[in-house]
Amino acid sequence: MSTQPAPAPLLIACALGIEHFALRTGDKSGAGGPVAVLRSGMGPKAAERSVARALADPALAGAAVLATGFCAGLAPGMHPGDLVVAEETRDPRGSVACVGTDLLVKELSRTLPGRVVHTGPLTGSDHVVRGAERSDLRATGAIAVDMESAATLLSAVRTRPRPVAAVRVVVDAPEHELVRIGTVRGGISAFRVLRSVLPTFFEWHRNVLLSRR
Question: pTM value?
Answer without folding.
Answer: 0.90
